[in-house]
Amino acid sequence: MGHGALREAMVVTARRMNTSGLNQGTSGNLSQRVEGGFLLTPSGMNYETMTPEDLVLMRFDGTHEGPRKPSSEWRLHHDILVARPEVGAVLHSHSMFSTTLACLRRGIPAFHYMVSAAGGTDVRCAEYATFGTPELARHMMVALEGRKACLLANHGLVAVGVDLPAAYKLAVEVETLAAMYWRALQVGEPVVLDDAEMARVFEQFKGYGQ
């Protein structure tokens, strides 16, 4: 089996996705890079009853091993991890506010400086394609260019990180931004920070934290 600690951490993170409200039911999925491929949550399993042994080991050639079928969205995880060597984990969820904006096919502009957490001056919304298809993965990769998160039209949210905690933290941040943006839109059109200000924000964050 192998990767015991990583498997345990994935189960904990998957359950946390639901208890925190970042995800619901068996929707959404999670992956973690390992040598030669990645661990992935199985298709259609309740996270509360899922065990570390249920996680699927996917190889980069698209084959897999283990007793369970891989998530139908395995291509999203595969394509990111192949193209982005700095990414160690990928989180996909159907979080409420990110998905609401995605159903409007509306990304998140720089209405708040914390949009920079996703790596750029906005969080893009990828073009629509049927779930589980290569087309969806291609559209997602375009939206993720130069970014660490994006929305999927009429679908949900994707966030990446160097590890599971980083991917989860970013997903929570993007969902929070989506909630704030949605609320602001109920009153009017939010003021968007310009590129010059966002450049200053990126400089400020270089020295942020301990």
Q: Features of this protein?
A:
Class II aldolase, eight-stranded mixed beta sheet, alpha+beta, lyase, Aldolase_class_II_sugar_metab, 38% helix, metal-binding, Aldolase_II/adducin_N_sf
Write the layout of secondary structure elements.
Elements: H1 4-19, E1 29-34, E2 37-40, E3 56-59, E4 64-65, H2 74-83, E5 89-93, H3 96-103, E6 125-126, H4 134-143, E7 149-152, E8 156-161, H5 164-187, H6 195-206
Parallel strand pairs: 6-7
Antiparallel strand pairs: 1-2, 1-5, 2-3, 3-4, 5-8, 7-8
How would you briefly describe this protein structure?
The chain contains 6 helices and 8 strands.
Q: How is this structure best described in words?
A:
- The chain has about 210 residues and is α+β, with helices and mostly antiparallel strands.
- Helices cover about 40% and strands about 15% of the residues.
- It has helices at about 5-20, 75-85, 95-105, 135-145, 165-185, 195-205, and strands spanning about 30-35, 35-40, 55-60, 65, 90-95, 125, 150, 155-160.
- Strands 4-3-2-1-5-8-7-6 form an eight-stranded mixed beta sheet, sandwiched between helices.
- The longest helix has 24 residues, at about 165-185.
- The mean pLDDT is about 95.
- GO terms for molecular function: aldehyde-lyase activity; metal ion binding.
- This is Class II aldolase.
